Amino acid sequence: MSATGSGEGVERCVKLTWAEPAVAVVAMEDRSSRNLFSQEIGRGLLEGFAEIVANPNARVVVVHGYDSYFCGGGTAEQLIAISEGRMSYTDFKFFDLLRYCELPTIAAMQGHAIGGGLAFGAHADFMFLAEESMYCANFMGFGFTPGMASTFNLPRVFGDMIGWEMLFMAANIRGASLRDRGVGVPVRKRTEVVPSAVAQARALAKTPRESLVQLKRRRLETTHEAYREAVRRELEMHGVTFTIPEVSKRIRIGFS
Asked: Can you spell out the DSSP letters for 167-216?
């Protein structure tokens, strides 16, 4: 097992292993924050993916969390900073890492994925969910409009009706419920999510790297303009909704 980066925090929070020479497995394990968007998580993801792409043997990337957590999104401090105009979600340089990695990416969302954490995973080319875990686009629960390109990705991934329901209602939905409602994302028992993702990665890795890169590039081309427009509009809406006085109060209460 090797860890990305040389810093102690990176080694603790983001670990890179290889299921085989062509299949990279990235584990997010910031137990102190339950995989919120900590500096260690962000730095570790960027360094890990740079290492993977630079490896000529790499062909597919699997990303997962630990125990019952996949990713929890932004911290209270980060959300307050956005509400005060001191940052935006595009300052998270890793937020669309799974989309723009030149290799196919698989989000093995074995644990709860909340807000920006769900949106982060939805950038992947393929996803697996867990029956027992909760998936929630909780942005509107704090009173501000969704971000992290979720207005583009969630209706695309979960279907228009369910995706927009998730965005409007900000409710916790179990993976089993999403499966029962007919979402097109594979749902497995939690213990089977990562093995299922790795198995799919191994199948993909039988294809030459350059062919995977070319097809991934073509996939991005088909949605490039719509994706960029969604990000632009989300940032525009944030300029309005994050300034609502009630929002900062809800953020502080929600994280207390």
From this structure: HHH---EEHHHHHHTT-SS-EE-HHHHHHHHHHHHHHHTTS-HHHHHHHH
